[in-house]
Amino acid sequence: MTSHDDTAGRPPEPYDLIGVGIGPFNLSLAALADRAETVSALFLDARPEFRWHPGMLVDGARMQVPFLADLVTLVDPTNPWSFLNYLRDQQRLFPFYFGERFQLPRREYDHYCRWAADRLPNCRFGSPVTAVHWDAEERLYLVHAAGAVHRARHLVLGTGTEPVRPAAFAPLSRHPAVLHSADYLTRRRALDAARDVTVVGSGQSGAEVFLDLLRHRAGDGTRLRWLTRTRAIAPMEYSKLGLEQFTPDYTRYFHGLPADVRDALVPAQWQLHKAASAETLAEIHDHLYERTVGRPIDAEPVEILPGTAVTEAAQGPGGLELHCRHGDSGRRHLVRTDAVVLATGYRAVRPAALDPIADLIDWDEQGRYRVDLDHRVATRPELTGGLYVQNAELHTHGVGTPDLGLGAHRAAVILNAVAGKTLHPLPHRTAWTTFLPPSAPACAPPAAPGPAPAPQPAVLPRPQEGTERAAASR
């Protein structure tokens, strides 16, 4: 294969695809592309090494998906970049086998991904992508990174998401005692002097931060408070049939819905992707229960307040002041606290490197990508190279978008589309649930009386197959 290293003289052969950003999803694509002899690929990341949510690798925290949701297994179980092969390389297969745990510690998942990222030859760290241009004459992307220009026929964005800070906390955006859960572990010592700490947000991150604070601040008199807008501290949906909403079948169903229906569905499905695991909530309850042995419940300086929104936050004379409103009763109250941890989630943002080609992208009415079933972004006709996104299509592909369980499948869909052929055969049906009923037959005039026909077996429609692209991208 022709070398892709940038050299003086004749331009190097362009890559078939370049991935911008190396998180778990683009790392999955890199792992699958590593064995695709007909597809040349390069993945670039500004960081010096792979890290996965380093601020949330707290002791005891576990993944919410089984270990099979690794980089490759659900598409190619024989791939050498599987988690089981990682265990074999680390000589830890038997300890894992005897452990009998389906969910991995977060620290182990991070280490597994770093193991793969350090060894994959198509991953290059310390290479920040500063700009992406489109060469209409050559019909290639020009990717500027670390003083070099790489050419590619297709581009895959895997730049991840950024922490969300609620608007009410804008006045405290630079306050040293107000941090996002993304930075929790790296800045936990900054909370040591606080005698009153408030956690905002009831998802898995909020639950893990609250539990970690309970463990580390037990018996020192610190008041710990947990606020959430949701009406209850509810567990994540984890029933077997409920989890079928994280299948390619549901993704196809969701993608086919009208845009306004999709936009209404995503927030209504918060318990599928924004709640805490039942196991973590049980650990919180068990910890609080043991702390109250021999003493009344109200002796513990702990508050859990669901259904409570922070409407305004500011620096007061004696510390931070949070103006709160209880949703059901409408009652308002003031919370005074020394520190706040915002476990308020993440959102996809458009990387600045796309600015040179922003006018060539067909944005929707809300300034978001229009994304087809192959995860290809709709573009103007003059931009003919494929532009794909990973974890930026929640509004078009539903709650499975950020889920690691669909990562390998999405990477395979993109790789097949880039190759123009099936490198990885994918299943036609992945769920028992039929998310869309068959269309009603057209009305017909009543038949003349006669003998009743023999009963026929019902025929279910096949799920949508093949690849479809939005017309606007062509």
Q: Over the alpha carbons, how many angstroms does the gyration radius reach?
A: 25 Å
Could you tell me the mean pLDDT? 91
Given as residue ranges, the uncertain stretches (5+ residues, pLDDT < 50) are 452-474
Please state the overall shape, judged from the principal axes of the Cα atoms: globular
Distance between the termini: 30 Å
Structural class: alpha/beta
Tell me the helix content. Answer: 10-25%
Number of helices: 12
Tell me the strand percentage band.
Answer: 15-25%
Largest sheet: 7 strands, mixed
Walk me through this protein's architecture.
The protein has 474 residues and is of the alpha/beta class. It has helices at 24-33, 83-89, 93-99, 106-119, 184-187, 204-216, 248-255, 259-268, 270-273, 278-291, 394-397, 407-419; strands at 15-20, 41-44, 62-66, 103-105, 123-124, 129-135, 140-145, 148-157, 161-163, 178-180, 196-200, 223-227, 302-305, 308-316, 319-326, 332-337, 339-342, 346-348, 387-389. 23% of the residues lie in helices and 20% in strands. The strands form five sheets. Strands 1, 2, 5, 6, 7, 8 and 19 form a seven-stranded mixed β-sheet that branches. A hairpin with a 5-residue loop joins strand 15 (319-326) and strand 16. It is globular, with a radius of gyration of 25 Å.
Mind sketching the topology for me?
Layout: E1 15-20, H1 24-33, E2 41-44, E3 62-66, H2 83-89, H3 93-99, E4 103-105, H4 106-119, E5 123-124, E6 129-135, E7 140-145, E8 148-157, E9 161-163, E10 178-180, H5 184-187, E11 196-200, H6 204-216, E12 223-227, H7 248-255, H8 259-268, H9 270-273, H10 278-291, E13 302-305, E14 308-316, E15 319-326, E16 332-337, E17 339-342, E18 346-348, E19 387-389, H11 394-397, H12 407-419
Parallel strand pairs: 1-2, 1-8, 2-5, 8-19, 10-17, 11-12, 11-17, 12-13
Antiparallel strand pairs: 3-4, 6-7, 7-8, 9-18, 14-15, 15-16
Helix pairs in contact: 1-12, 6-10
